[in-house]
Amino acid sequence: MSSLSAYIVRRILWIIPVFFVVTAITFALGRYGPGDPIEVRTQGRADPETVERVREELGLNQPVPLQYVRYMADFFQGDMGESISKYPGVPVWELIRERIWITAQLNIVSLVILFWLGIALGSFAAMHVGGWKDPAIISFLLIFQAIPTMVFIPILLWLFVVKLSWLPAAGWDGLLSLHIVIPLIALVLPSLAGVARLMRVSLLGTMGQDWVRTARAKGLPERTVFFRHIFRPSLLPLTTSVGGSLASIFGGSLFVELLYGIPGMGRLALDAVYARDYDIIMAVFIISALAFLFARLITDVAYTFIDPRIRLGAESR
């Protein structure tokens, strides 16, 4: 087995217990938390005999650890339960299947644009350090970082919909429609300062390294020095921030989908929380956890491609 394959296997073996610990804690909080799924399902109108019968049908009379094991076994067989209040009797997977691709498109495109712009602006600021352009760019981006998403979206709606009439007010019509513009702005701009600053600091730190001075002393073209000896090593810190950026974008997408009327996972999750629809909440959380852990795995693997010393260091331990 190659060193890279062994490294990937070790990361997967680390992810599996983390996934089950996180989901077990979430499941327990749902079961021991306020509210009773039976009361939600029966709307508090059933007699005690009916309540006990429904509780037994749902397996809620069993110990919580056993409920968790059965739930996870059913989950990985495609059975995520049924909605008990918001969409009574509708399988949870049918509700999620209609929405997961919308949320995935919104989050992935936002993440790609975030890092593309962040790397570009951070590089531009680093190349103009000492002048007015460097602080101007970073200060401008920090303004958007300070505005909460729930405040930023109404501002965007007022500006682009009410005042300028450039964009549609709400809804979703795919990535290639104007409906995507406001959600992308709302998700990308607040996180852009963090990525740009990280890239700027990383570039400035790399520019002072001995190997950069050596490359310049050899007479290499400045373009070669920058892209081969400065830019690539400077990407290392950014790869570790992908997971955090994805979590930030996903958290922001909850409010974006709710306020902009996008029928995605975030909108479904918030509706389920308000309706205390436990199976929907749990399914959305598990899928989100899987997505974040998978993104972390991809990040770790990408890190080893950029700097093979990472996996070699792991082997030596």
From TrEMBL:
InterPro entries: BPD_transp_1_N, MetI-like, MetI-like_sf. Residues 100-299 form the ABC transmembrane type-1 domain. Gene3D superfamilies: MetI-like. It is found in: Cell membrane. CDD domains: TM_PBP2. It is a multi-pass membrane protein. The keyword Cell membrane applies. SUPFAM superfamilies: MetI-like (SSF161098). One of its GO terms (cellular component) is plasma membrane. The chain crosses the membrane at residues 12-32, 100-124, 136-160, 180-199, 235-260, 280-299. It holds the Pfam family BPD_transp_1. Keywords: Cell membrane, Membrane, Transmembrane, Transmembrane helix, Transport. One of its GO terms (biological process) is transmembrane transport. Its main location: membrane. Belongs to the binding-protein-dependent transport system permease family. This is ABC transmembrane type-1 domain-containing protein. It comes from Candidatus Terrybacteria bacterium RIFCSPHIGHO2_01_FULL_48_17. The lineage of its organism: Bacteria, Candidatus Terryibacteriota.
